TrEMBL record, chain A:
One Pfam family linked to the record: ABC_tran
Stated name of the protein: ABC transporter ATP-binding protein
GO MF term (any one): ATP binding
Keyword annotations from UniProtKB, A to Z: ATP-binding, Cell membrane, Ion transport, Iron, Iron transport, Membrane, Nucleotide-binding, Transport
Membrane disposition: Peripheral membrane protein
Cross-referenced PANTHER family: IRON(3+)-HYDROXAMATE IMPORT ATP-BINDING PROTEIN FHUC
Source lineage: Bacteria, Bacillati, Actinomycetota, Actinomycetes, Pseudonocardiales
Localization (cell): Cell membrane
InterPro entries, per the entry: AAA+_ATPase, ABC_transporter-like_ATP-bd, ABC_transporter-like_CS, P-loop_NTPase, Siderophore_ABC-ATPase
Residues in ABC transporter domain copies: 19-255
CDD domains attached to this UniProt entry: ABC_Iron-Siderophores_B12_Hemin
UniProt xrefs under SUPFAM superfamilies: P-loop containing nucleoside triphosphate hydrolases (SSF52540)
């Protein structure tokens, strides 16, 4: 695996392994979706997981975030097996934004983001000045401080997604797992969310693993791509190493040209058609 | 708060609009006016309505004499009527209302569904069915045996029904939609058991059983007040201390787990507490209809919260039962209407009013 990050190199990049999956098997109702999977996530990197629908990318992310128990193998967080660490302590180190999260009707943005402080709270310490500072910063970072008193159900899709990311930020973790953070957003809002992720990585040195559908955005905002197929890793490396015409044909069944992105110099996928349409 | 107050507390400026800090020493919370107002006004209402109930009956007692009896300065006859006969009924109503409403607030929150109250999901029906089985087996409703065995049977039945619902709904964890549907199924099944028992019961047993089907405060004594009181003294602080994860549980399971809430354990714990509260309440006064469903939803709307507020729900539940009791004893005194009928008549329309008003506000 390459740790080369081009012009994205930041101070926090130490090469330390934050998350390690060792031969994990994970699935739903006894049917494994992912099996025998090994993976290491290095500190200070941005990793995008790509792959066709149903390839197990969300399942793998949920296993890394202990949202789904593994049926074989194990996941280590900073060297400690996840199942040995209390859920609440994991939540102070690892923040996760699940796919299409649900909020109760009438909950305000400020209250939503404040719930990200749950792992740090006790019954008598519900809104310490620490909590307040971290939540205000999280709202500011995502540009929604002025929406704090608005109910979440009144927001647009892009604003709502920023509110959820803000809640995960309020958890104060330097490791973020995002499951399709750009789903249901138009292109401008997708770029908006990924620019935010990029700032969190560059400015704070946060480690990010995200599941993305758009290959070109994945290539642009991640320094490592993991392509999955049928519950295993089909390719792993820099965007230029992974996004090749042969891989696109093999993994996605997509006939495409890979050209140079005029803005970043990275790879850019231009589809011709799928194997199904040919 | 919706008016955007940014007050300063102890020289600290509010940094998150709508979340005004309230900090005393190591204690910190968010200051919110509506819940405080609802709790304060509701508590005053409970005291006033409760005092009013103490004055009415076959032997009317004035407010002044009620007060004198309460402080131990009245004649013996008044003291017996107020303290021994009426006060336990009023206190049972207050405690049962609070317990049912807290149970409803918990089940509605963890199931993320306003329909998921103990009287919809079979817990109160379980308590009723178990009490009826005891009656049909020959346990008299009066006397020491009745006072001990029937509430115990109701408690076991209520908890048993709650555990049955959890066990049947469990499939790699508890999913809220499944929990409600299984609860409704169990509830219908137990209602059928109740109907069957009434059909096979002898006539005098059936009339004893009446209280276990409709809910009533008539004839409640200190032997009913004390168990509910003890249950509340134990369960309420436990619930409040464990309630930190309830806000996170309102999100999807993945989000709650991501925030560090052990979802299954937290949900099962809260469900067992709710079942215990509802069963204890049903054991004391029978299944008083609608309180557990309606009071938390009324409190939710009055406090403009995003989830049923626990303390405000208890106060609203207590108020609903006491006011219903007052109405039953005054306006409907000749008919002997059980309080459970009045809670439904009072609570239903008020909830409908709040819901339609809420819809108009959102539409605006």
């Amino acid at each position: 695996m390459s740790t080369q990050t081009g012009d994205d190199v930041i101070d926090g990049h130490t090469g330390r392994v934050r998350l390690r999956a060792e031969g994990i098997e994970v699935g739903y109702g006894g049917r494994p979706v992912v099996s025998g999977l090994d993976l290491e996530i290095l500190d200070g990197t941005v990793t995008a997981v790509i792959g066709p629908n149903g390839c197990g990318k969300s399942t793998m992310l949920r296993a890394l975030a202990r949202l789904l128990p593994v049926t074989a193998g194990r996941v280590l967080l900073d060297g400690e097996p996840l199942r040995d660490v209390p859920s609440r302590r994991i939540a102070t180190v690892l923040g996760v934004l699940p796919q299409s999260p649900q909020a109760p009707e009438g909950l305000t943005v400020g209250d939503l983001v404040a719930r990200g402080r749950y792992p740090h709270q006790t019954w008598y310490r519900q809104w310490s000045s620490d909590d307040e500072d971290v939540v205000a910063d999280a709202l500011e970072r995502t540009g929604i401080l002025d929406l704090a008193e608005r109910p979440i159900d009144e927001l647009s899709g892009g604003q709502r997604q920023r509110a959820w990311i803000s809640m995960v930020l309020a958890q104060g973790t330097d490791l973020l797992l995002l499951d399709e953070p750009t789903t249901f957003l138009d292109l401008a809002h997708q770029v908006d969310v990924l620019e935010l992720v990029d700032r969190l990585h560059r400015e704070d040195g946060r480690t990010v693993v995200m599941v993305l559908h758009d290959l070109n955005l994945a290539a642009r905002y991640a320094d490592r791509l993991i392509a999955m197929q049928g519950g295993r890793i089909a390719a792993d490396g820099t965007p230029a190493e992974v996004l090749t015409e042969s891989l696109l044909a093999e993994v996605f069944g997509l006939a495409a040209s890979v050209i140079t992105d005029p803005h970043t110099g990275g790879p850019m996928v231009v589809p011709k058609g799928t194997s199904r349409s040919q | 708060m919706s008016n955007g107050v940014t007050t300063r507390t102890a020289g600290h400026e509010t940094r998150v609009p709508g979340r005004v800090p309230l900090r005393v020493g190591r204690f910190s919370t968010v200051w919110r006016l509506p819940p405080v107002v609802v709790v304060a006004v509701g508590a005053v209402g409970v005291v006033l309505a409760g005092a009013a109930v103490l004055t009415v009956g076959d032997y009317p007692v004035g407010f002044a004499d009620v007060f004198a009896a309460l402080v131990g300065a009245s004649d013996r006859a008044t003291a017996v009527i107020v303290l021994d006969l009426r006060l336990p009924e009023v206190l049972t109503g207050i405690l049962v209302g609070a317990a049912l409403s807290l149970a409803g607030a918990l089940t509605q929150t963890i199931a993320r569904n306003p329909l998921a109250s103990p009287d919809i999901t079979g817990i109160t029906q379980g308590a009723s069915a178990a009490a009826l089985i005891a009656i049909v087996l020959g346990v008299p409703s009066g006397g020491l045996a009745g006072a001990l065995v029937l509430p115990l049977a109701a408690l076991v039945g209520g908890l048993g029904a709650g555990l049955l619902v959890v066990a049947l709904a469990w499939r790699n964890g508890l999913e809220s939609q499944r929990l409600v549907l299984v609860g409704v199924g169990v509830s219908f099944g137990l209602t059928a058991v109740v109907s069957y028992l009434l059909a096979v019961a002898r006539i005098e047993q059936a009339s004893q059983a009446k209280v276990w089907i409709t809910g009533s405060l008539t004839g409640r004594g200190w032997e009913h007040v004390i168990p509910v009181g003890i249950a509340l003294v134990v369960l309420v602080p436990t619930v409040l201390l464990a309630s930190g994860g309830l806000g996170a549980l309102q999100f999807g399971d993945d989000t709650a787990r991501g925030l560090g809430v052990p979802v299954e354990r937290a949900r099962t714990t809260m469900l067992v507490m709710a079942a215990a509260l509802a069963a204890v309440a049903t054991a004391a006064a029978g299944p008083i209809e609608f309180v557990a469903l309606v009071a938390p939803q009324v409190a939710l709307r009055l406090t403009r919260s995003a989830r049923p507020p626990l303390i405000a729900s208890m106060v609203v539940g207590a108020l609903l039962v006491v006011v219903a009791d007052l109405v039953a004893r005054t306006l409907l005194s000749g008919i002997g209407t059980p309080v459970g009928v009045v809670t439904a008549v009072l609570g239903g329309p008020f909830l409908l009013y709040l819901i339609t008003r809420g819809r108009r506000e959102t539409a605006r």
